[in-house]
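Is this the right way to post structure tokens for a design question? Let me know if I should format differently. Anyway, here goes:
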């Protein structure tokens, strides 16, 4: 995720409210018209700022959308409770909450197509949660050698595929089934 350029600039200091207005306008447009129609011009108009004000902070629409969708999100992850099933369900619920939002559903495929550095984006999205995931996967009962990255790919990939194919991720039965599949994958039964 490319964050607004923080290098010192000459002249008048940047107004932090501009960034907040642009990000809010981006979320609104994504929910209303989708990724393809949410142009930088439309974002700037909705935010009440100029195109140059947007381009001074972000290099592309994909950068704005990535920050609007994922840069402002809560940087916490589910805590380890000692109950592996409950902890895995918390991970499932967190991923469903993140990827099931209407603006994410509307934008994610277009964003992935436009982002020049998908690997870095993926790493930045996961980095704040990695220590929590390590704790979850270090609990008694988890078979040795469970790879964090593969676990995340299974979890996020399952939710993403469901969202990408227009299916509802908010059904409790879906979260129950995904939790059970992940549980059996990490305990090896």
């Amino acid at each position: 995720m490319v964050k607004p350029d923080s290098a010192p600039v000459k002249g008048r200091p940047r107004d932090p409210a501009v960034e907040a207005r642009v990000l809010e306008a981006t979320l609104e447009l994504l929910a209303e018209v989708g990724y393809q129609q949410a142009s930088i011009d439309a974002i700037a108009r909705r935010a009440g700022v100029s195109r140059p004000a947007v381009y001074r902070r972000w290099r592309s629409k994909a950068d704005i959308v990535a920050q609007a969708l994922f840069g402002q999100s809560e940087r916490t992850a589910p805590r380890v409770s000692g109950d592996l099933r409950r902890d895995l369900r918390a991970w499932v619920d967190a991923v469903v909450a993140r990827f099931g939002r209407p603006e994410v559903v509307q934008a994610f495929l277009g964003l992935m197509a436009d982002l020049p550095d998908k690997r870095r984006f993926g790493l930045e999205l996961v980095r704040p949660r990695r220590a929590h995931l390590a704790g979850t996967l270090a609990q008694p009962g988890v078979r040795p050698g469970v790879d964090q990255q593969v676990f995340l790919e299974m979890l996020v990939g399952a939710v993403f595929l469901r969202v990408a194919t227009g299916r509802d991720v908010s059904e409790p039965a879906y979260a129950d089934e995904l939790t059970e599949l992940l549980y059996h994958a990490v305990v090896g039964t």
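Format looks fine. Someone answered above. Worth noting: The chain has a mean pLDDT of 86. The radius of gyration is 19 Å.
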